[in-house]
């Protein structure tokens, strides 16, 4: 069991989730984070921390897609241990649906 990040994170990238993770399992893309599910200890601490409600348990309906997505990109993106800058327009993207189709950038974060 694990938690995963959905596309509600795209362009929000608040990074509050990071601080609560005792297992350092977040990885960083240009405009969102994902969780390395095999590193996740299923503590659930990150889920209520996300202002965009982007984090879900891997057992909720529809989560299977996001498990695969998190596994794919956590293998390609660098681990993130400390928060960087939050996008200035992050709040404007909180209520936008289906950002995977329109806004997702598959590139790893450059830090
Ligand atoms: Fe994304 Fe929410 Fe973390 S917007 S970076 S999953 S706090």
Q: What is the compact description of this entry?
A:
The protein has 111 residues and is of the alpha+beta class. 19% of the residues lie in helices and 11% in strands. Strands 1-4 form a two-stranded antiparallel ribbon. A two-stranded antiparallel sheet has the order 2-3.
Secondary-structure map:
Elements: E1 3-5, H1 16-20, E2 26-28, E3 33-35, E4 55-57, H2 63-74, H3 99-102
Antiparallel strand pairs: 1-4, 2-3
This protein binds FE3-S4 cluster.
CATH topology: Alpha-Beta Plaits
Query: What's the total count of β strands?
Result: 4
Shape annotation:
globular
Order of helices and strands: EHEEEHH
Strand content: 5-15%
Strand order of the largest sheet: 1-4
The number of helical elements comes to 3
CATH class: Alpha Beta
Q: What is the radius of gyration?
A: 12 Å
- Tell me the structural class: alpha+beta
Ions, cofactors and other bound molecules: FE3-S4 cluster
Binned, the helix content reads 10-25%
How far do the termini sit from each other?
A: 30 Å
Descriptive terms for the model:
111 residues; alpha+beta; Alpha-Beta Plaits; two-stranded antiparallel ribbon; 3 helices; 4 strands; 19% helix; globular; binds FE3-S4 cluster
Walk me through what this model shows:
- The structure is a single chain.
- This protein is of the alpha+beta class.
- The protein has one domain (3-80): Alpha-Beta Plaits (2-Layer Sandwich), CATH 3.30.70.
- Helices cover 19% and strands 11% of the residues.
- The protein contains three helices and four strands.
- The chain has helices at 16-20, 63-74, 99-102, and strands spanning 3-5, 26-28, 33-35, 55-57.
- The protein has a two-stranded antiparallel sheet with strand order 1-4. A two-stranded antiparallel sheet has the order 2-3.
- Strand 2 (26-28) and strand 3 (33-35) form a beta hairpin.
- It starts with a strand and ends in a 9-residue tail after the last helix.
- The protein binds FE3-S4 cluster.
- FE3-S4 cluster is lined by residues 5, 9, 12-17, 32-33, 49-50, 52, 54-55.
């Amino acid at each position: 069991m694990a938690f995963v990040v959905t596309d509600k994170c795209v362009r929000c990238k608040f990074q509050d989730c990071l601080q609560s993770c005792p297992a350092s399992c977040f990885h960083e893309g240009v405009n969102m984070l994902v969780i390395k599910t095999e590193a996740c200890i299923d503590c659930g601490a990150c889920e209520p921390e996300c202002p965009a409600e982007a984090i879900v348990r891997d057992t909720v309906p529809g989560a299977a897609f996001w498990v695969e997505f998190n596994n794919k990109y956590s293998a390609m993106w660098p681990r993130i241990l400390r928060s960087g800058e939050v996008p200035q327009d992050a709040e404007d993207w909180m209520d936008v649906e289906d950002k995977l189709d329109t806004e997702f950038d598959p590139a790893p974060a450059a830090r």
